[in-house]
Amino acid sequence: MAFILTFLGKGGVGRSTVAIAAAKKYAQAGKRVLLIGQDPSPAWGIALGMSPSFSPVNLENNLDAVQIMATAALESGWEQVKALEAKYLRSPTLKNVYGQELGILPGMDSAVILKEIWDYDKSGQYDVIIFDGDGDLNTLRLLGTPEILSWYIRRFREVFQASDLGRAISPFIQPVTSAILNVSWTFDNFAAEPTQEANQVLDEGKKAMADPNRFAAYLVTDASAGAIAKAKYLWGSAQQVNVTVGGVIVNRSDADVGPEFEPLTNTALPTVEADHWEDLISHLPDFSQAAQAPQPLIIDTAARQVKVFLPTFDKKQVKLTQYGPEITIEAGDQRRNILLPPPLKGAPVKGAKFQNQYLIISL
End-to-end alpha-carbon separation of the chain, Å? Predict the structure, then answer.
């Protein structure tokens, strides 16, 4: 399994430059590195000296790069679905539906991109995967796909199973999920508890995102007030999808923004000329130290407490509700549903308070 790293921040602060420098740093240290770009245009590859490529290409020793195009991945999987339909149904209904049209379904493009990252991770070919995505709330929603999908299955499977829509599309759930998402779910997944396979896929994704030794994000900003404000907002929002933010990188400036992001480590990168990668690489932080940063979620069953790290938010911006075995926390425009473990399942919330940027919930 690879260590997966991504960067968050306002557009124009140099996220892609930092991602490339990080990839080169790991490659020089002897790690097998894959740099993944979400931008499918030629612009992304200019700094790397590569043409657009949707399969990994070797750039230098230990370093490969690839661009992800969600529509191409959707089309490939959808063609498999249509082939299955044509094989088993006398009058296929999907033959005139194009894979690209699936992109209008909420979250489908994020699920496909995340699946691509997982597939490269499971291939065993890489020690480090660096994802150069949009770096904003869209990236956080992408990373939160396993948690969100798990919640939808828990909450809506019975409603879906009883609906006319559910009965109409039930024959296609298994081939669609098998071809596009590489899992084999059936209509029964929505009528009862998800199968072991479905549970395993979602649990693996959630555990990977929650483990800072497996996945971490770093904030990238410059010294401008707008960039700092955006980085702070993304820091708080990242907690809502259980992503550990390991530190903040101030690009093209030696400004000390530490007080704005305490207790995160603050690393300043100098302004360098084009292609002077060594100057940047030498100033990058040790990304393996992300595990030392505050964890988004701590569940202490002995103390009967749930601690949620919510930096940049205050109690007026946070709403706490409880629905059965789940606690729902709304902060900003992000919502998080926390499924309580068996020792705390069914326990009502007795109180909540803010302390050291944590929302501490007593059960």
Answer: 36
